[in-house]
Amino acid sequence: MATAFAKPENALKRAEELLNVGQKQEAWDTLHRLITSRRYRAWTKTLERIMFKYIELCVEMRKGAKDGLNQYRLMCQQVNVSSLEEVIKHFMHLSTERAELARSKAEALEEALDVDDLEADRRPEDLMLSYVSGQKEKDRSDRELVTPWFKFLWETYRTVLEILRNNSKLEALYAMTAHRAFQFCKLYKRTTEFRRLCDIIRNHLANLIKYRDQRDRPDLSAPESQQLYLDTRFEQLKIATDLELWQEAFRSVEDIHGLMCMVKKQPKPSLLVVYYAKLTEIFWKSSGHLYHAYAWSKLFSLQKSFNKNLSQKDLQLIASSFVLAALSVPPYDHVHGASHLELENEKERNLRMANLIGFSLDPKLEGREVLSRSSLLAELVSKGVLTCVTQEVKDLFHLLEQDFLPLDLCSKVQPLLTKISKVGGKLSSASSLPEVQLSRYVPALEKLASLRFLQQVSQVYQTIKIENLTKMLPFFNFSEMEKISGEAIKHNLFSLKIDHREGSVIFGKLGLESDGLRDQLVIFAESLNKSRDMIYPPATKASKLGEMLPSLAETVEKEHKRLLARKSIIEKRKEEQERLLLDMEREEESKRLKQQKLTEEAEQKRLAAEFEQRKNQRILKEIEERELEEAQALLQEAEKRSKKKGKKPVIEGEKVTKQTLMELALTEQLRERQEMEKKLQKLAKTMDYLERAKREESAPLIEAAFQKRLVQEKVQHEHEQQQEIELSRQRHDGDLKEKNRLSRMLEYKMKFQESVLNHRRAEYERLRAEREERMSHILQQRRQEREMKRKMLFYMKSEEERLQKLHEEEEARKREEAERRKKEEAERRAKLDEIAEKQRQRERELEERERMRREAILGKSNDVPPKTVTVPSDSGTTVAPTATGTDTAAPATAPSKYVPRFRRSENSGQPAAPESDRWGSNRSDDRSRPGDRWRADDRPPSFGSGSRSSWSSSRR
């Protein structure tokens, strides 16, 4: 439950009481509640002491102090900012001190564990833990002791930077905190925290630029603020390069360039030297040799112009570095044959890098034409840099850029590179520059020498053996030379082909479109023309005119046609121009109408805006009148208070606003508070005087009491010492008597001890023998179990293989049986289909015979009219008339309906006479038999029914 204190002194006293009894958490809670309470908003000296105690507890308990510092900042911002500065410095000092103490403890622990015999001082469980965890003692000690305090120190820096980011009065403390955080990251190699710190500072500056109307924000236009921010960024750049975080270093360079553009003031030359020196390192690490050389150009100009203490040796070393950096740039254009998008990206990149280096380029032009190797070499000559370099560098420049020595180039370059690689060292008169070593340019110069050698050889030779080429090129073997030449061919430096079969190198494209061959052919043609003119002089002018006369008529005709065509073209152009003029008039008319419409809309908007403005003015006037009334009321109240206190009126004048009165009231409150503070200080001073007087009076009395007590304690000490001596003598005499009394039992004690030891030794031997026997039995049993398991596994594997083989044989048998069944089924179905086809053929023949017989019967019945005979029958039906010339009578159902013969024979109950077929046989109809297997129906059987009947009959 929160306890409310009437005074802050009570809270501080309560916290100290809790600390005396070891309750740190309760003391911290007490102070935290007091600091974050809204009740205490005015700053006092007591609150400063409370804040110091609160900070100490936070550091000791590793708790965050962000909330408390934020509240204290609100208290001190307008009254006493220096108090906040002291508290923050104390906070960082304690955090840094505890982190260093933890680190020293970890190092001491590591030294204590650094012994020769690791197994002598370590327990077995420690060794097992180290083997399992795979960590060293230093890693574990760092994780347990150092890492928590490093985390707390990092959080301290972040908290302080967050609190001071918008405070214009503590900009120096903000910069100091950033520098200390940078040094922390550098000292302990904290790369991740360094990146986060750079992002934090970058975001703080972006927010300052974005929100310009914040209260108490730093003024970036002030020279002091600009210098602090630039110093912070330069420190960030130095630490980034020391930690080899090149991407973060490049971002730091961009931050510095943005600040310099914002300030619009040239920084000091010393800072610019650091800026370009770091740029040289960044561009060299990123293989940006062109920008590296331009950065060296800026460094050379700055050192030569502003460094008055620069010695001739240091200037020579800087100039040599500049020349070698320029020579290290590849001698071809990297964007040759690139796409439009790549060209735009390269242009944008050149603009960006040129701005960082300090060159101003026109964005409408091609940036690569300005930042190029040729312009850089021209700058070397124009500035007279070659006059400052060493003789080896000057000779190397002439060999690689001016001389034409295809056979001796590499042999002359190699000793120069050997001498150059030994040159370098620290500059004595330019301390801000890094250590210059010319040896790092040697690989790039060897590559350049190889390219120049191949380029010059390609102009002299058309074909050369690979052996001779490798002898003349000592820097690289042939595979590396092939890789280098491939890159150069890609960028159109020269052209060559390698024939590995013949072991030769062929220079040039060997085509008619080759530049070298085309030039040679042109020169050869010009020489031939000159020779022909000398041998056969040209004809005179008269002869030329005579030659031209026969073709004059044709020329006139062609000219006449050309003039007619020109006239038609002119007419078409006139028509096109008139059409364009009409289109332009129509377009202008549409634009005029559109502009008129826009003007009308703008007029309507203006009228609406004026109406809205008048409305807002009326509202503002009403608000001002209301505020004036409130101001008058406040003025009357202020006058009443001033009359009661016997003072003059608060303000005199005709026009008084509410804002003025509020400012006056705030001023009055501040004045009363200051008077109260003065009274409190006077009271504290009086109390200090009274306390000093009381202590001066009580000092002699305390000293006398102290001397008296010393005499009493001395007498008491001597008496107690005498008593202790007597007691010691009595105890010694008693111990001697007891020893003499027990000495007679010493022999029995030894015998008993020996018997106990013998018994325990025998028991131990027995238990050891039993254990060895048990272990041998267990080993034998396990050996048998392994043997049994191995046999079982072998048996199971054999059985599984046998079952698998049987299963495969069964599967094969089943497949063969299924195939045989399918084959038999197919044969049976083929036979059934054949029988069915024969049956259908037989039915068709029978139907054809029946049709012919019916036609014959119908023909006879038409010739002789039938006689109607009534025959009694069982069914009571009428018998049809019989045909003339036959003895067989057939029943008839009706006089006009035809009845087949087999129907007539069945109805009459008499056998039908056999009918002779067209072949002359007297064979009777098969279907008239009662036991026939075919159905005797007057309808022809369908396909399905016939098939089923044939199949069923074949099965029977």
Task: Describe this entry's structure for a reader.
With 956 residues, this protein is mainly α. 73% of the residues lie in helices and 2% in strands. It is built from 30 helices and five strands. A hairpin with a 4-residue loop joins strand 4 (496-499) and strand 5 (504-507). The relative contact order is 0.02.
Form type: extended
Query: How many DSSP H or I helices?
Result: 30
The number of E-state strands comes to: 5
Biggest sheet descriptor: 3 strands, antiparallel
The secondary-structure class comes to mainly alpha
As a percent range, the share of helical residues equals: over 70%
Output the radius of gyration.
60 Å
Mean pLDDT reading = 77
Binned strand content? under 5%
Q: Give the terminus-to-terminus CA distance.
A: 110 Å
Instruction: State the low-pLDDT regions, or none.
Output: 111-123, 131-138, 360-369, 510-514, 648-654, 864-897, 905-956
Enumerate the strands of the largest sheet in spatial order, edge to edge or round the barrel.
3-5-4
